[in-house]
Amino acid sequence: MPGTDALMMILGIDPGSRFCGYGLLSTEGRKVIAAGCDVIDVSRGKDLSQRLKTLYRQLGEILDEYAPDCAAVETMFFQKHIKSIFTLGHARGVILLALAEREIPIVEYSPKEIKKAVVGGGNATKAQVRYMIEQLYDIKLQSKKDDAYDALAIATAHFHRVRWESKP
């Protein structure tokens, strides 16, 4: 992992089987720029296998275009609907495969770790995360889904860890 003085592109990924958020941070020393965020919309896929194929292809295009130095991915969390957790697991598998094929180092963060890194508390709401991301990067992307903001938050959590670990 490059030190904080090196130029680094961090990709944050908020996995989803219908909307997968991604956010890019470009860092150099203490300077951090939100290079962009959006969602991969696979909600129109006829079935899960088609949605996973689309997710894999579109994420691959993003990885090839931006060539991130590392990827931070949100871990799975408990959901009431067991079918949802299995579907999310399939999407995460596709995401991890696309990253591994390109030998992009992967780190994972729980939702609580991400919220704590960005907002200061692990029980923050989506609105609080969105607000902090807007403040940190001076952006207002009202047309973007929460998944895109969450992905920038995931990348931000990783930046904070890298910065913290590199301090003497």
Task: Write up what this structure looks like.
The protein has five helices and five strands; from the N terminus they run βββαβαβααα. The chain is of the alpha/beta class and 168 residues long. It has a five-stranded mixed β-sheet with strand order 3-2-1-4-5. α2 (82-101) links the parallel β4 and β5 (106-109). α4 crosses α5. 35% of the residues are buried. The model has no long low-confidence stretch (mean pLDDT 88).
TL;DR?
The protein is of the alpha/beta class and 168 residues long. It has helices at 48-66, 82-101, 111-118, 126-137, 146-165, and strands at residues 7-14, 19-28, 31-41, 70-74, 106-109.
From the structure above, extract its key features.
single chain, 168 residues, alpha/beta, Nucleotidyltransferase, domain 5, five-stranded mixed beta sheet, 5 strands, globular
Name of the CATH first level: Alpha Beta
Largest sheet: 5 strands, mixed
Distance separating the two termini: 16 Å
- The number of domains is 1
Unreliably modeled segments:
none
| Structure annotation, total helices | 5
Q: Report the radius of gyration as a whole number of Å.
A: 15 Å
Q: CATH fold name, please?
A: Nucleotidyltransferase, domain 5
Helix content: 40-55%
Q: What fraction of the residues are assigned to beta strands by DSSP? A: 15-25%
Helix/sheet category: alpha/beta
So, the CATH homologous superfamily?
Ribonuclease H-like superfamily/Ribonuclease H
The SSE string, one letter per element, is EEEHEHEHHH
Mean pLDDT: 88
Number of DSSP strands?
5
Shape call: globular
What's the CATH architecture?
2-Layer Sandwich
- In the sheet with the most strands, the strands line up as 3-2-1-4-5
